[in-house]
Amino acid sequence: MDQVRFGIIGIGNMGTSHAKQLLRDIRGARLTAVCDSNPERLRWAKENLPESVRTFSDANAFFVSRAMDAVLIATPHYDHPTLAVQAFESDYHVLIEKPAGVYTKAVRDMNLAAAKSGRKFGIMYNQRTNPLYAKLRDLVLSGELGEIRRTNWIITNWYRSQSYYDSGGWRATWAGEGGGVLLNQDPHQLDLWQWTTGMMPARVRAFCHFGKYRNIEVEDDVTAYVEYENGATGLFVTTIGEAPGTNRFELSGDNGKIVAEDGKLTFWRLRVPEPKFNAEYTGGFGQPECWKCDIPVGEGEGPQHRGILQNFTDAVLRDEPLLAPGEEGILGLTLSNAMHLSAWTSDWVGLPLNEDLFYAKLQEKIKSSTYRKSTGPAGGKLLDVSGTH
Amino acid sequence: MDQVRFGIIGIGNMGTSHAKQLLRDIRGARLTAVCDSNPERLRWAKENLPESVRTFSDANAFFVSRAMDAVLIATPHYDHPTLAVQAFESDYHVLIEKPAGVYTKAVRDMNLAAAKSGRKFGIMYNQRTNPLYAKLRDLVLSGELGEIRRTNWIITNWYRSQSYYDSGGWRATWAGEGGGVLLNQDPHQLDLWQWTTGMMPARVRAFCHFGKYRNIEVEDDVTAYVEYENGATGLFVTTIGEAPGTNRFELSGDNGKIVAEDGKLTFWRLRVPEPKFNAEYTGGFGQPECWKCDIPVGEGEGPQHRGILQNFTDAVLRDEPLLAPGEEGILGLTLSNAMHLSAWTSDWVGLPLNEDLFYAKLQEKIKSSTYRKSTGPAGGKLLDVSGTH
After folding, report:
1. Nearest residue to B247 (alpha-carbon basis) of B155, B179, B144, B373
2. Are B322 and B120 in contact (CB under 8 A)?
3. N or C: which end of chain B has fewer CB within 10 A?
4. What region holds the Gfo/Idh/MocA-like oxidoreductase N-terminal domain (chains A, B) (predicted)?
């Protein structure tokens, strides 16, 4: 094979953006099919995509067509796992949009289907291509920071107005998205939080506020406290309601602290590790000598979506290692599910997660939802997502 | 009266430092008496203070002496309220070191005694003289930030080594200090957290780790989450175990956000308040125009202890308003007590605090303490506290 034929299912905001990149920017990739149940989007595809791109309104017809080698799934979140399972069972390679799904039970099934199929499986964690986070991961996993003691991510720069929520009926509902800021805006940070540190928490206590800043039924403000196996603690603070918000990730460890903020990585590096200093010091108020180090980081935010599309294409063509294996999507979603469950039960949630309990509680939320969207001035129209992640 | 005669009770670390300042730097103040039950400290006083300064080994003799107009209390924390009550009942003005005490029940009695006496009552909240926090309070209380939405103080730069804890038998024990980092290092930040915002939380959920980084029985690592009446949330993160640590206080409000860090105050000011923007905006991903403003702040850390001593002296002499009225000491201590109680009960703690429950739990900790100090290399010696607060 010298070219990967891509079929995209779901050509809304993100799917459309991916279609354009596949037509233009990805070596070894070709867009050969799209599928969408919305007639308006299909009409757009027929009018704007090359004639060679086949269009499908029905998922089953799409999957039996063999019009592609790989399926890119860019539908609403709930459908990611079910469509991925269908794609694997139809023997396609699969690249899914984030989040992996809405509840981990379904994502586990997807991961099993992927393993059984032997096909390539990727997830659109495009922030893993950001040199800032790649370098942070490098510093941590190579041991420069030493044992981690605290993680503290303030990620409150996801500002969204009421008009944003009014723009799509499925947005920010339990039935449509299965959550709010955690499901739609934070999947990248939830992934990077564990990807850069190599650590998943042992337990989670989260405080979610639902419809605090916007007329929505899901969470729009979250503070999550976690504890890790090694005794470290962590915080994850997020909202769509603050402007301008903050994106500051601080990691503290035996050898000092690292802060990722404003595209810069700063390492306050101790000359000797803190435990060694503490064991040897005999004075009163002294502390370890510390060097403020500006860590070199590649320019810009990296290749982002294009990078993931290229890497996935290269994985299919030449067996290159995936930067974002699809099976890892369950990790960030587990964090998100655990935060919801902790807030709903007002209690600690230990990991591994009680996936059945989460699923049952989510169904309760969907069933008891009385929320009906009022269509605002931007009602139903497609948003321009260029510049978002 | 054209001069205030000061008597200091407790001439350990802080009392000695105050004695030197009263002898040297405070207009209208004179040091006329000191009291300490430790013969070594009394000998130091006789050898190093002017002959005119009377020395007492017994508190009762000190209080009946009329050798002073104002009593400065710089003993271990537990004794602050009881000695203050005795001082007020003996008709002295009173300035106490922070914290106001160890449990609010006793501090409430102290405040009643102060009110009954009609004497001046101050507390050594010297960080209130820091131009950074004075300006922050000014911005918030004058309404520049608008309604507060989140407070987030990372105050982890209180590094203390094991040798520090080994230097005094009363340090970091339930019986001696009644707590760890919250009682000894954080009283200023706990005060400033509410002083700069004008808000006390409605409820507190805190996660304390006891003896995590040091061989001590009290808390050395704390993450506290709070909720305010107006719906705002807050975080207070503190430890003595991290180097170099962080001191970053972020406030988010309707009109933007303010960060106090590295002696600088930065105000990301929205051109129109966020609620107005949100009500009028009809697009997808827009957000309010934001101006990054460097707020002018006076040089340095302000007059600190000298400032409080001078202000208290001026209050006694000329009825000048107190910058840090003693009655306000109960606020920061309430936060600290609530954090302990939340950790001990693994539950929310609502304010007003259940003071009897806190007191009972503290007594349990003291009674069940099996901790015996090992005297390290710095055992029992006086630490040089110049440069600490």
Report:
1. B155
2. yes
3. N
4. 4-122
Residues in A closer than 8 angstroms to B159, CB to CB, are: 287
Digit-coded pLDDT (tens) for B102-148? 999 999 999 999 999 999 999 999 999 999 999 999 999 999 999 99
pLDDT at B388: 55
pLDDT value for B380 = 46
Q: What is the pLDDT of residues A141-153, one digit of tens each?
A: 999 999 999 999 9
Query: Do B285 and A388 count as a contact with CB atoms less than 8 A apart?
Result: yes
Measured between CB atoms, which of B150, B225, B282 is closest to A225? B225
Q: Which helix (H) or strand (E) holds B274?
A: helix B274-280
Long-range contacts, stretch B384-389, CB < 8 angstroms, 24+ apart: B384/A284, B384/A285, B385/A285, B385/B13, B385/B14, B385/B17, B386/B17, B387/A285, B388/A285, B389/B126, B389/B127, B389/B188, B389/B304
Considering only CB atoms, which chain A residues are within 8 Å of B377?
Answer: 282
Taking 80 as the threshold, does the pLDDT of residue A322 lie above it? Answer: yes
**B383 touching A (Cβ < 8 Å):** yes
Touching A: B residues 211-240, CB under 8 Å? 212, 214, 221, 223, 225, 227, 231, 233, 235, 237, 239
| Single-letter code of the amino acid located at B258 | I
Q: Which CATH superfamily is domain B128-302+332-367 in?
A: Dihydrodipicolinate Reductase; domain 2 (3.30.360.10)
The CATH number given to B4-125+303-325 is: 3.40.50.720
What DSSP letter does each residue of B58-109 carry, written as one string? -HHHHHHS---SEEEE-S-TTHHHHHHHHHHHTT-EEEEPSSS-SSHHHHHH
Place A376 in a pLDDT band, splitting at 50, 70 and 90. very low
The confidence score (pLDDT) of residue B168 equals 74
Count of positions (residues) in chain A: 389
Rounded to whole angstroms, the Cα distance separating A91 from B198 reads 62
Nearest to A56 by CA among A75, A84, A37: A37
- All residues at 6 or more sequence positions from B61 whose CB lies less than 8 Å from its CB, including other chains: none
| Domain range list for chain A | 4-125+303-325, 128-302+332-367
Q: Is the pLDDT reported for residue A171 higher than 60? A: yes
Task: Give the pLDDT mean for B187-195.
Answer: 98
Under 8 Å CB pairs connecting chains A and B tally to: 153
Q: Does B39 touch chain A if contact means CB atoms closer than 8 Å?
A: no
Q: Do domains B4-125+303-325 and B128-302+332-367 have the same CATH topology?
A: no
Q: For chain B, positions 297-336, list CB contacts with chain A under 8 A.
A: none
Q: What is the pTM of this model?
A: 0.95
Q: Do A161 and B277 touch (CB under 8 A)?
A: yes
What's the distance, CA B240 to chain centroid? 16
What is the distance between the terminal CA atoms of chain A, rounded to a whole angstrom? 31
pLDDT digits (tens, 9 = 90+) for B156-172: 999 999 999 998 778 89
- Is there a contact between A207 and B205 if contact means CB atoms under 8 Å apart? yes
Look at residue B290 and tell me whether its pLDDT is greater than 90. Answer: yes
Residue A7 distance to chain B (closest CA, Å): 28
Q: Which of B221, B245, B290 sits opposite A243 (nearest CB)?
A: B290
ipTM of the complex: 0.94
Residue A265's DSSP bridge partners are: A260, A295
Q: What's the confidence (pLDDT) of residue A224?
A: 99
Tokens describing residue A27: 């070596």
Dist. CA A263–CA A132, nearest whole Å? 6
Distance from CA of A113 to the nearest CA of B (A): 36
